[in-house]
Amino acid sequence: MMTLSDVAKILKSQDNIEILTHHYPDGDTLGSAYGLCIALQNMGKNARVVLSGKCARKFSYLLDGVKESNFTPHFIMSVDVAAKSLLGENEELYSDKIDLCIDHHGSNTLGVNDSYIDDTAAATAEIIFDLINVMGEKITPQIANCLYTGVSTDTGCFMYTNTTSKTHRIAGELIDLGADFGEINRKMFETKTKEKIALERMVYDTLDFYYDGKLAIIYTTIAMQDKLNLGDDEMEGLASIPRQIEGVKMGITIREKKNRDFKISVRTNGDTDACEFCKRFGGGGHKAASGCSIQGDLITVKQTLIAAAEEILL
Amino acid sequence: MMTLSDVAKILKSQDNIEILTHHYPDGDTLGSAYGLCIALQNMGKNARVVLSGKCARKFSYLLDGVKESNFTPHFIMSVDVAAKSLLGENEELYSDKIDLCIDHHGSNTLGVNDSYIDDTAAATAEIIFDLINVMGEKITPQIANCLYTGVSTDTGCFMYTNTTSKTHRIAGELIDLGADFGEINRKMFETKTKEKIALERMVYDTLDFYYDGKLAIIYTTIAMQDKLNLGDDEMEGLASIPRQIEGVKMGITIREKKNRDFKISVRTNGDTDACEFCKRFGGGGHKAASGCSIQGDLITVKQTLIAAAEEILL
To answer: Of the given ranges (A147-151, A297-301, B106-110), which has the lowest mean pLDDT?
Structure first.
């Protein structure tokens, strides 16, 4: 097991560093990558971030302090990438060439020899925060913005139970170091696209309750998606809606992916086990959040799920 | 100006203590009051909380560690109460009898001789956290739940710019002291009543955009309120909806309070000044959040607001 000092020593000895993110890049992989990239550039090194997939527009401020850098990479590292397949479009080119892996997923299967994996960290950005300090490098306001973004997004703004007292301590320090946290949180948590609003409006019209309000179900169809002209990734993020409703023990979101092919997301409160439920349909996940796939037509799929939930909820 | 040691000394010398909250009690006034009440009871004192108005059901866990206490009060204090009128139903009986005031509103006008007011605190619960420590009393998990609730709700789960590094440090300590923060945040931020869902659904249908999407307007009417059978307080909390939409600089919520009487809530992003806007209609508030009242019929009121926004947004 490497220590952060080992990691710092390796990075200090290297130049011409490429930093890989996971695909569908989120606030933590982006914030960790750009935060570290700026710190390495400030140390006089050549460094750049190699994205897998596009950086969503709302994250564009993360690039503010990054210098364009033209060089031949000699050292490849990954941040927040838990498996080769998560490298996405970069898998073929990079998966056997990673020299250093930094991650907070205990389930990491990258198999990189030099790995620093700390699954007590709520976000990889927490590890990068410590690393930059161990390297003795200054955390500038721009780096603080990157790392705050990672910590804040991976904890649902400190709402989720992966948050620790260390997470809060680091967030506090980042605020003191100049993180523009109010604006970051507004962008991350309080901004919805018009399309998202339109989608929520449509989805609310599909909301139904069963078993004295203990089961709530919403659905989306390809026809809805087409009408709103939304991409597949824009159909995500609805699964929390039915569970949020008072009295609901199980919230199910049915999403038509293609004809007769439905993706089911199940979210539960309290003791209700979403994973047990989804296993019946060949799926799985965690107790509070699981998923599965079911083939058929919408009405039959919905009836099947309602029937299966009966013994759990009654 | 009193110090926290002065406050601690006074409280230690007292017994039979009543703690007043402000009306429409929120997470901070309740969490501060019950957290302190439990600490005082643990010190062997008689103490109780005197609510102004009802404690909403979602806050009921705050009372878990509170002992019923029958006594004649000798010492009256208030927490998070910034003005006499905010005592609500208790104003007449209590407003001249307050012996000690603890608050974080710099604008406090209670005029109590023994006052500890710290407007750098994001929540009164931060002050109570320090106070219990200065008194040398243990913060039990139940007290931690109360104080975490105060801190978390008054900062929008650490999202708003009143959050400081101290807020985060205290939240971290409360987590280490046993605050059940995941469940608390779920109750506070991720639970909506069915009526609220139904209201949002209706309100989404009123959403209109003007000036290239820079202005978004929603409204509620008495007819909608009647149809959903909602109380006046249940019509609150919609004002953030129009501002959250991408590209919106000004979000206006129009609420019909009684016939021909409309309450207008204005929320802005960036440099757009909500207060200047509302002043034209005899209202006011803060730059990002202001309000006013306008008489008339819905269509005229809406047209008046749209016209008034033109020079600000174009």
So the answer is: B106-110
In the structure encoding, which two tokens stand for residue A183, read together? Answer: 């604006």
ipTM of this predicted structure: 0.87
Cβ atoms within 10 Å, residue B128: 28
Contact A12, A19 (CB under 8 A): no
Alpha helices in B135-221 (DSSP H): 141-154, 165-176, 181-189, 194-204
How close are the terminal C-alpha atoms of chain A, in Å?
49
For A259-301, the DSSP string reads TTEEEEEEEE-TT--HHHHHHTTT-EE-SSEEEEEEES-HHHH
* Residues in B touching A193 (Cβ below 8 Å): 245-246
Nearest to A175 by CA among B240, B193, B162: B162
Q: What DSSP string runs through A210-234?
A: ETTTTEEEEEE-HHHHHHHT--GGG
Flag whether residue B159 sits within 8 Å of chain A, measured between CB atoms.
yes
> Which residue on chain B is closest to A165 by alpha carbon?
B172
**Chain B residue at shortest CA distance from A203:** B201
Angle among Cα B276, B279, B284 to the nearest 5 degrees reads: 90
Closest alpha carbon within chain A to B209: A194
Q: How far apart are CA A56 and CA A196, in angstroms?
A: 15
H/E run at residue B48:
strand B47-50
Q: Do B159 and A189 touch (CB under 8 A)?
A: yes
* pLDDT tens-place string over residues B42-64: 999 999 999 998 898 899 999 99
Query: pLDDT tens for residues A26-76?
Result: 999 999 999 999 999 999 999 999 999 889 889 999 999 899 989 999 999
A269 chain-B contacts, CB cut-off 8 A? 186
Give the pairing of strands B47-50 and B17-20: parallel
Check if the beta carbon of residue A302 is closer than 8 Å to that of residue A254.
Answer: yes
On whether any CB of chain A is under 8 Å from the CB of B171, the answer is yes
Which among A159, A164, A243 has the least Cβ separation from residue B189? A159
Q: Provide Rg for chain B, Cα atoms.
A: 21
For residue B88, the one-letter residue type is G
Q: How far apart are CA A206 and CA A212, in angstroms?
A: 17
Three-state SS for A111-178 is CCCCEEECCCCCCHHHHHHHHHHHCCCCCCHHHHHHHHHHHHHHCCCCCCCCCCHHHHHHHHHHHHCC
Host H or E run for residue B55: none
Q: Which two tokens stand for residue B150?
A: 């105060």
Whether B271 has its CB under 8 Å from any CB of chain A: the answer is no
**What is the pTM (predicted TM-score) of this model?**
0.88
Q: Which is it for strands B250-258 and B261-268: parallel, antiparallel or unpaired?
A: antiparallel
**Yes or no, beta carbons of B159 and A244 under 8 Å apart:** no
Q: How far apart are CA B134 and CA B139, in angstroms?
A: 11
Cα gap A47→A75, rounded to integer Å: 9
Given a contact cutoff of 8 angstroms between Cβ atoms, the answer to whether A252 and A266 are in contact is yes
A71 CB within 8 Å of a chain B CB: no
Query: Å from A125 to nearest chain B CA?
Result: 17
